[in-house]
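Record type: monomer structure entry
Structure origin: computed from sequence
Chain ID: A
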Amino acid sequence: MNKIITAFAFVFLFSTASPAQTKHILSVIPTQRGIEGKDLKLRVEFTNVADLSKVKLFYKSTREGDFKQIEIPLSRENIVVVTIPGEDVKSPALELFFEVIDKNREISYFPGKTPYELMQIPILTTEGAGAVIILSPDKGATVRQEEVVISASLIEVENFDPEKTQILFDNIDVTKWAMVSAELITFVPENANLQIKPGRHRVAIILKDTLGKVVAQTSWDFYVLSPVEITRRERAINYGANFELELRQESVKNQGNFYVRGRGNFNSSYRFLNLNTNLYLTSEERSNIQPQHRFLIEGNLSDWVKIGVGDVYPNFSPLVLSGYRVRGFYGKLDLRYFQVEVINGETRRKIEGSLSREIPIDSLTGTLPQNSIYDTTTGKVLIFSYGAYKRNLFAVKPAIKFKKNFELGFTYLVSEDDKASIKFGGNPQKNVVLGSNLLLSFDGGKTEIRAQGALSVRNENLKAKSWTDTDIDSLFKDTPDLRDNLKKYRPLIEKFVPLNQYIVPINPLGLSSLAYEASLNLNYFGNFFKFDYIFHGNEYLSFGQPYLRQDIQGFKIFDRLRLLKNQVFLTFRYENLNDNTKRQRDYTTKFINWEVSGMYSPLINLPNLSVTYSQSASNNGLPYTDTLKALDVVVNKLSFDVSYNFEYIFRNRVSFTFSLTGSDDKTVLNSDFNNTAFVFSLYSDLRENLRGNFLLAFNNSKFKKPIFDALGKFIGTGEEKFNYISFGTGADYSFGKMRVWGNLAPSFGDLKRLYIYFGGSYEIARNQSLNFNCNLLFYSYIDIVAYLTYKITF
């Protein structure tokens, strides 16, 4: 008992401190190790969420070139957990950054000052070193008799002798009928004349070294259907559902709010038909903001027809339409060698403008403002704040493909604001994009060539009058080539968008609205190599991918080498990019980023080690005395991570993280930044049902901030600091159908606060549970966030 009390007093709340480089995000914490193919949860802590308008997470695997995005729903809680889907979690690492828009419409980023300074999270290929990876059948799977093939990957296992491998099927040794290599086990029951009866079956795989010592083993069950069960399943309707109700009370800076949120999912299948329904409802839904409710009804007809109605996030092309919410209809037809996808709906709903103020007509000088009307009955001018037009989007993508080796697709997108949807709005716009993509894959996917391109045109004011040939002759009399091209192609252009002074680009043949990318992937001998070339024109824009980086071109190189049966990862990344793609300015900014890292994850009981060094340089070549435009900044970062599992009194996992970050601004602004971060954490399983954690975190940041006078003239540099120390204690205890937890985490220094978190869960029945959580943040004031969640599954 004394040992338990002593250890419990030495456990603290887990956290991974990130350098505080934005005033809005304090830290980003992976709540568990990153495992390839499994959801990854990030705990994001804001300094004050009440100051924020919108937050987006952008992420990608280091093996990929395009970022995906998640919009983080904001309540009044300073801590939120965001989940990256398992299908996007790929080794060796994820790269991510946050874009934060505050209530003043100012944009900032995390972890750096730009979206090109990335946070990296290592991703492991399996949950533990030396694991046997089950390929088929899955654990607990239900299969037909003719589908039974036993298969497992041994690529993660080292120091075993294939000759001493043992495979048991229902406690019968079937090793001599199995195919065993250093990387794979395959057993087909028919080869052993083994009759597979309906019912539950068990497989066991035992791997031994040359001395006969067991180095790895696994076992699992699966179920074989009888003919009667197969017939019954084909005729029966299978269904499942789960629902969740959340009641949330928040008090932030003495402002209280109560929320009700509900989530539901229903899925059913009948023979080759599948139906899935997702629903999210919240009391935060308001008619004067964009939709907060989410719903989707989706049906599949085998693998060749898919139809969805509701909030869809289509992925047609990374350049044209990727992960952007569309509320409407989605359809997909897959005929093996030909595929077509279509989406039609709205991306933004109408929100009428609101009256902001009234002024007497006599006090007005000049003409009426564009956002106003004159009320003849009162003699006043009514000034309105602009609303939002309803924006519709239609896209179609036909593609020719052959298995996973070839695909040639074309994407057409048109998105337009409905001018009649509201009375008081800004300039309605229309966007048309035509794109294509090509995939060539060889040697089982080990060699891949990808290419994609797109051309956009948009009109930024549909209210303006279209040009006639006479208008074009008058406006472009000094540029005869442009004049002749506009007159020649005007009938074609106006089939898509009106041609007037608001068209972008004004010269479609100038290719400033062109974007294209090409990549080569090679994956041989434990080495993954990727080369990318990108060009995004300065005027390219797709309303289906509005966050794509514009005005950039250059190349990227990524190389990852796996050694010692995936125990050692060596990674190199290099980017050489520049803007000013059409020489529209008299200076060009170069962005050169590189990174080298090494990770050691031993199969035996030794510490996991990781070290990374990176540098990001931005330079536009202007004289340093130009305080408005000059840019010459170099950011260096060194990080070191160690983690170790060991047993002393209890089962423990200890981790240590240390990082140094520094920026050197060579211009007269001298906006240097330096950060030192240190985190030590310990997990301890005090009992089978009792777990504790320990944390000690230190953060030291120093900023140099330029100072300007009232006229905007640079007069000097000031220095700011942000230093704090955090530690805490917490435990998680389970007993019977209940589980309770609690954490205490004070911070000292420039971050003065006390964080208390406690809660519990209770299993009402096998398919029902209650969960309660309460967060208390003590500053000079107290923030309280408490919520109760009820879950039921059918």
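Annotation 1: The CA atoms of residues 449 and 520 lie 5 Å apart.
Annotation 2: The two ends are 42 Å apart (CA to CA).
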